[in-house]
Specification:
The complex is a heterodimer.
Chain A: H1 3-20, E1 25-34, H2 41-51, E2 61-67, E3 70-73, E4 78-81, E5 100-102, E6 106-114
Parallel strand pairs in A: 1-2
Antiparallel strand pairs in A: 1-6, 3-4, 3-5
Helix pairs in contact in A: 1-2
Chain B: E1 3-11, H1 14-30, E2 33-38, H2 45-58, E3 63-69, H3 74-80, E4 86-90, H4 99-105, E5 116-120, E6 137-143, H5 150-153, H6 155-160, E7 163-167, H7 179-189, E8 194-197, H8 206-217
Classes of the chains: A alpha+beta, B alpha/beta.
Chain lengths: 115, 220
């Protein structure tokens, strides 16, 4: 469970960005989390509620956009979405592929602030 | 009162990733080949390293190891018997190693005097997957006693690995290990990954592992 340390990193970055933009209040933080990022959405939300206390982010929303895993299939010559992360095969032609194109993201996309 | 949306576009693990990139380039220019060993607790990382450090020294390589654990320096003591420089990284409860811990624990070591540096991560198949340590190769270990479906249960880790090692092959029969299923599951998560099967304790398959290390170091 390393979600708490990840959330602490999010709070630090968001506080800095909001401060640099002279924000009066932080309303929401938008995160993008890939299916292979190795973090659990509920654990992030739970950690955020605890860790945001007494910070500029207290009471603000954490909005998590979950990104499905995409691989590039050489046979189909296109990027396809995996049905699950238990099998790295093209769902169309069943060819295995280790060429991951999306799924490891763990990114602060944007913040909504009051100025 | 006005609200607005501010684009941030920052990787949450940016600090770790940047430091890992720095470490990687430091390792490359020093000519030291760095491996990050990951597995669940009890798979046999330390046993494999004990044998590996000694055997690589016999083959004339200069080796060192950093070993991560939540508590105790038992593993470092075990590994130091090989005669190689070894340092324990105590994470004080943290469930993974981070790039900053690697940098701190390398202080005072001359990297140009090393051929191989092994990093034994904390026994955990979840969190270490997210942290780049600047390694050249990440090796995920799986023992025959753990269950053939481990890769399917922890796909993030096995997908992030560059090679897989199946350990405790001497116990395969007693554990009713289903080799075909285990190898298929590893490749289902990471197609075309190189898999090495061995028993460090009995010395089975260790030569192929050492050959693999030398080959990877040469960049083949």
């Amino acid at each position: 469970m390393h979600e708490l340390s990840i959330v602490l990193g999010v709070i630090e970055t968001v506080s800095e960005s909001a401060n640099a933009a002279n924000a009066k209040k932080i309303i929401a933080t938008y995160l993008r989390v890939g299916a292979l990022a190795g973090v659990v959405k509920d654990a992030l939300l739970f950690s955020f509620e605890i860790a945001s206390k007494d910070t500029p982010l207290e009471g603000s929303d954490l909005v998590i956009e979950e990104l499905p895993p995409l691989i590039f299939c050489r046979v189909c010559d296109k990027t396809v979405e995996l049905d699950s992360i238990q099998s790295f095969r093209c769902p169309v032609c069943d060819t295995p592929s280790a060429d991951l194109r999306q799924g490891k993201e763990l990114e602060i996309r944007s913040i909504e602030i009051e100025v | 009162m006005t609200t607005r949306v501010l684009e941030v576009r920052k990787n949450v693990l940016n600090k770790n990733d940047e430091l890992a990139r720095e470490l990687r380039s430091t390792f490359q220019s020093a000519g030291v080949f760095v491996l990050n060993l990951v597995s669940s607790p009890g798979t046999g990382k330390t046993m494999l390293l004990e044998k590996t450090l000694a055997a690589l020294r016999q083959r004339g390589h200069r080796v060192a190891a950093l070993v991560g654990d939540l508590e105790t320096d038992n593993d470092a003591k075990r590994l130091a018997q090989s005669g190689a420089p070894v340092r324990q990284i105590k994470t004080d409860g943290r469930c993974h190693l981070e790039a900053t811990m690697i940098r701190t624990h390398l202080e005072g070591w001359s990297l140009t005097d090393l051929d191989f540096l092994f990093i034994e991560n904390v026994g955990n198949l979840v969190c270490p997957a997210s942290y780049d340590l600047g390694e050249a190769v990440r090796v995920a270990l799986l023992s025959v006693s753990e269950g053939e479906d481990k890769p399917l249960k922890y796909p993030t880790m096995f997908n992030s690995a560059d090679a897989a090692v199946v350990t405790k092959m001497d116990l395969a029969e007693a554990c009713e290990y289903d080799r075909e299923t285990a190898l298929r599951n590893i490749r289902e998560i990471r197609p075309s990954i190189e898999i090495i099967e061995l028993s460090a304790k009995r010395g089975i398959g260790v030569d192929s592992w050492l050959d693999f290390l030398e080959r990877k170091k040469r960049g083949v």
